[in-house]
């Protein structure tokens, strides 16, 4: 595909539609930007070449015009010297030089139109490249915000879990203390009940023994 075909494809491309279909929009935009930059370099190189070519054509045209002017002066000189045949030869050279100058003039006009079109294409592509880069920056910012929000949610979740664990441990310690306290009280009451039962049995036994 030549440079002008690529340029038309890029300019006519619908970036929004392409982004909607892309699995990885960031990667697609990066590739598009690279393609645009490469095409822009080629367009500028081609334009610079056309400018250089135009300069050469213009110089050649001026040279042909000067040659035509010299042959006209020679034809006049030949007529002044009564050398009509020589004047005809000079005029033939003058006509050939004028034709060459006209051909180069037309070529120069085409060259200038080509340069004008190339500059228009460069400007149009630079504008689309700028828009694509701006879209890429917006996409990167959105992804960065999404990553930051995700990190914040994960940190919040981590902090919440840590607080819950801390509360569970505290409640566990409290329950453990209650269990210990309950166990201690239970043993005390059990001992008191046992001692009381023993005292009752002792009194019964004394009574039975007549004491």
UniProtKB/TrEMBL annotation:
This is PspA/IM30 family protein. It comes from the Bacteria. InterPro entries: PspA_VIPP1 (IPR007157). GO terms for cellular component: cytosol. Residues 175-197 are annotated as: Disordered. It comes from Candidatus Ornithospirochaeta stercoravium. One of its GO terms (biological process) is phage shock. Belongs to the PspA/Vipp/IM30 family. Residues 87-159 form a coiled coil. Keywords: Coiled coil.
